[in-house]
Amino acid sequence: MPKFSDAEKEIIKQKLMQEGERLFTSYGIKKVTIDEIVQAAGIAKGSFYSFYSNKEHLYMDIAGNLQFKMWREMDAFLNENRSLPPRELCKQCFLWMFKELQRYPMLKQANSETADYLYRKLPPEVIEAHTKDDGHELIKLQEYGVQFKCGIEIATKTLQTLAISFLNLQQENAADQQTIMELILDGVLKEMISDEGD
């Protein structure tokens, strides 16, 4: 196993994430090989395995990093819209995130096929860690008055399922996509979130 200094590890990891994102965005997770990733990053194949057990793990690391950037931007959105009733705030936040996906092509192109593939290829603990990260963001919504009628874990998994479903709507025209998303969100959020009028 290669020995790297902490500085070298950071440089290599950033290069893997940068080139991985570029390749996954261009070709999709199934078509990209580890050989292509290491060639683009300029490292030996053995070095790749010092960082990741497989390309799917790298993909999840990149996706998590991109989501983290979006969540930081979401903080500003929540602050600007904190006067909305809780259910409406959650709905507008979810719709805002889907508009923001335009800035993150790798996340935007994910769909149920991508999710199914990752669930098959990754160990359950990697998927569970991703779910926990999403759950932490939902907990943050509670600071803005959002109270979930169900547990955070169920709310997280429900909203993750919705997110993948909404990604599958990308073939629809923009007006239909927006209408469908709003109808689904209205129904789901009514069941999940307590509101002032309840």
Which properties best describe this structure?
198 residues, mainly alpha, Arc Repressor Mutant, subunit A, Tetracycline Repressor, domain 2, 2 domains, 10 helices
Please characterize this protein's 3D structure.
There is one protein chain. Strands 1-2 form a two-stranded antiparallel sheet. The chain has 2 domains: 1-52, Homeodomain-like (Arc Repressor Mutant, subunit A); 54-194, Tetracycline Repressor, domain 2 (Orthogonal Bundle). It has helices spanning 6-27, 34-41, 45-48, 55-80, 86-100, 105-108, 112-121, 124-141, 152-167, 174-192; strands spanning 147-148, 193-194. The relative contact order is 0.11. 72% of the residues lie in helices and 2% in strands. With 198 residues, it is mostly helical. The mean pLDDT is 88. Helix 4 crosses helix 5 (86-100), helix 5 packs antiparallel against helix 10 and helix 8 (124-141) crosses helix 9. Residues 10-70 form the HTH tetR-type domain. Keywords: DNA-binding. This is TetR/AcrR family transcriptional regulator.
Task: Give a brief outline of the structure.
The protein is mostly helical.
What is the fold named in CATH at topology level of the largest domain?
A: Tetracycline Repressor, domain 2
Poorly predicted regions are none
What order do the helices and strands follow?
Answer: HHHHHHHHEHHE
Share of residues in helices: over 70%
Structural class: mainly alpha
Query: Multimeric state of these chains?
Result: single chain
Helix segment count?
10
CATH class of the largest domain: Mainly Alpha
Radius of gyration: 19 Å
Mean pLDDT: 88
**Within the largest sheet, what's the order of strands?**
1-2
Q: What count of domains describes the coordinates?
A: 2
DSSP summary, beta strand count: 2
CATH architecture classification of the largest domain:
Orthogonal Bundle
